[in-house]
Amino acid sequence: MRIPIMAGNWKMNKTRDKALDFVYEVNREVPDLTDVETAIFAQDVHLRCLVKRQGENLKIGAQNVHYEDSGAFTGETSPIALKELGVHYVLIGHSERRSYYNETDESVNKKLHSALKYKLVPIVCVGEVLEAREQNKTLEVVERQTTKALEGITAEQMPGIVMAYEPVWAIGTGKTATAEMANETCKDIRGVIEKLYSKEIAEKVRIQYGGSVNAKNVKELMGMEHIDGALVGGASLDPTSFIELVNAVKEA
Ligand code: PGA
Q: How many other CB atoms are there within 10 angstroms of residue 119's CB atom?
């Protein structure tokens, strides 16, 4: 049994006060949940105060991390600093990082090793652009991204890694993959993990779907066999909407 994770990726949104209000409100609703985990990915500058309000269930994550422990990397954040703050999760290889900030399969792999070294729970994002989908290359792309991301990762480390399938054309566009499409690709990613490790390991790894998830489409997506929660941008900004998403996973 894989426990799904409902995660909000706030991107570069929210003031500190709004962020704190959100966490206060959501924490009241989710403290005793055992059948779904909840996470919020906030801007680095808000992490310190949000971490102080982490609950039993709701945990805080960073949207990026550098792969080196320290050094001359202006503007970057060290995994050690995140760990020291008490941050629980870290997002790695989000498509916005890949397309705007030159994140490559190689840096994703290095960041994953670094996150695991400091016991930050990584959510590794993979997904194809529209052109690849139209050329039937989705499997090829996610297979490459997944395989490269996982280079050098041991079978023991694997169950502690969360994958997120996020088709780039569905992010922030209002276009969601159909539940069948999303499930099919999550199944393919699980197949890649099985090939690299074993069926037993592949069945333990949680794979989220992300891309225009909202209160209307969440139930169908979460009801699918290979989808273990969601990584949500726009619909995670409002606490009522986020709680609705969490409840939908519980019921799925
Ligand atoms: P969206 O973003 O839900 O706004 O499409 C998803 C994401 O970027 O993780």
A: 10
What does the DSSP 8-state code read for residue 237? S
Least confident of 25-34, 67-76, 103-112, 156-165: 25-34
Atom 7 (ligand 1): residue with closest C-alpha?
233
Task: Give the CATH fold of the 5-251 domain.
Answer: TIM Barrel (3.20.20)
113 is known as an active-site residue: no
pTM exceeds 0.85 for this model: yes
Pocket of ligand 1 (CB under 6 A): 9, 166, 171-172, 210-213, 231-235
Pairwise CA distance, residues 98 & 100, whole Å: 6
Q: Is 29 a catalytic residue?
A: no
Ligand 1 atom at minimal distance to the Cα of residue 171:
5
Mean pLDDT of 121-126: 98
